[in-house]
Design brief:
The chain is mainly β. The chain contains one helix and 16 strands.
Amino acid sequence: AVRRRRGGTAGPVRITRGFSALPGEYDLVVVVRERVEADRPRLSRRAGVLTRRLILPDFPSDELTVSSIMLADRVTVLDRPLPDDQLTERPYVIGLSEIQPAADNFLRQDEELIVVLLVYNPFVTPERKFDVEVEYHFYSRHADSPERFFNRTKPQRFTPAVMGPQFDPSAGHPLMAGQGVPLAAFPQGDYRLAIKVTDIVTGRSIQRDVVFTILS
């Protein structure tokens, strides 16, 4: 889909829509069609169709897991919670944070890598205590040699002292982790970011990877 911007130039427009579904495999069909103009009702309308296969996982309620890793253009903090009737139109609002997903995984050295993920099912004691650590390790990738460790950032820690006394993962409160990393010190090339999530209380851990490329 395109829209006309000031000055007559055309550019892409991003359309988002949220929905809920049970775990399983689905075919998502999106149809975009031109509007009918009142003064030209018989004019044929152009249309485009996009089809994607979706696999929605079933997260066990007693097993530590995480969402897909999202690369974002920005994360905005809202002044107040979004009304329920607006969540369908703005599906990337989580708590008081609104995520603008990146269109791809290609970045420039003057940009910032922003990663976001949700942690599900951390162990919560009867006293509502929990302790989750998230680590971020970067590896450079080369076609003619094994990948090499590049650097890492300071781990994140999520506890009641950090999140506040009202935060309770067992009540469905989303535990959102993520970091913004300036890329000025990253040479051009391909990278893998390994994100390790550890439940300190139980000792369980899980790792997810995301790859990205830095351009000139």
